[in-house]
Design brief:
Elements: H1 2-21, E1 24-31, H2 51-57, H3 59-62, E2 66-73, H4 75-84, E3 89-94, E4 107-108, E5 111-112, E6 119-128, E7 134-135, E8 140-141, E9 147-150, H5 155-161, E10 166-169, H6 172-180, E11 186-190, H7 191-200, E12 207-223, H8 225-230, H9 234-262
Length: about 260
């Protein structure tokens, strides 16, 4: 009888070990700039972390064996660490064919599958109200010094394809200050975030947004090749869960954070 109980306890412990082994750690990196999508400009994850962070965190509720941890760093660093496998995924990454070498997107028929996007955002041109440079939705005119963009952002390649000289900056505030100093014709930035910076900073009152947007892009949770190789069946489950969260929670989270960021 004693031997029976010893065997039973051993099997129970082995079963518990198996359950623990099924938990998958998922390290997700994102940008360290303050916005409604990811609040504060620190490496710490704040109590109210932002729209996109909350959406990604909710994946755990739909994929129970997943344990998500976050880290924050400059966007260019996020891209480097995704390629090396130092992180398992990054957000929000717009689809660029050249980025396929550093990570995996949800794909269908050779194209990114926007059903599984995390969000859709636009880029706009910001300039001094009396500056000569123009954007008509198809081309730029009267540019003499070039256009600013944040280092690592996908809009840089899009601008270059349009024949625009690009100067890279590290932060939105840097870009707007360079505009005020007359060191560029314009600043191409994510519209939602550009509008937020202008609204919160009276020093940029002489800067205006040009319509229409330069570009509208879908954004994704991009996964490293290394994680995908280890968990090829799990990654589509993660993307599907995120798509369901976007449909169910994005409107609520936008109302929560954009109210805060518009005050």
């Amino acid at each position: 009888m004693r031997a029976y109980f010893l065997v039973a306890i051993l099997l129970l412990l082995l079963g518990q070990g198996s359950a623990v082994a099924q938990v998958v750690e998922f390290h997700v990196a994102y940008e360290d700039k303050d916005s409604a999508d990811h609040t504060k400009s620190t490496i710490e994850i704040p109590e109210h972390p932002g729209i996109m962070v909350e959406m990604v965190r909710l994946i755990e509720t739909r994929v129970p064996n997943l344990r998500i941890t976050f880290s924050r760093k400059p966007w260019a660093r996020c891209l480097v660490e995704l390629e090396s496998g130092a992180v398992d995924a990054i957000f929000s990454s717009s689809f660029k064919p050249e980025r396929l070498k550093i990570g995996v997107y949800p794909m269908k028929d050779g194209k990114d599958d926007r059903r599984y996007r995390i969000d859709t955002k636009s880029y706009s041109l910001y300039k001094l109200s009396d500056a000569a440079g123009t954007w008509d939705g198809k081309r730029f005119d009267n540019l003499r010094q070039g256009v600013l963009a944040i280092r690592g952002y996908s809009i840089i390649d899009d601008l270059k394809k349009l024949g625009v000289a690009v100067k890279e900056v590290n932060r939105a505030d840097d870009g707007f200050r360079m505009l005020l100093a007359g060191r560029a014709d314009g600043f191409a930035h994510l519209t939602e975030f550009g509008d937020y910076v202008l609204k919160k900073s009276p020093e940029f009152a002489g800067i205006v947004k040009v319509a229409p947007p330069i570009m509208t892009k879908d954004y994704y949770l991009q996964v490293s090749h290394q994680f995908y190789a280890k968990q090829p069946a799990l990654v589509p489950v993660i993307w599907k869960a995120l798509a369901e969260i976007r449909q169910a929670e994005l409107e609520r989270l936008e109302a929560k954070y954009l109210k805060q960021y518009s005050e």
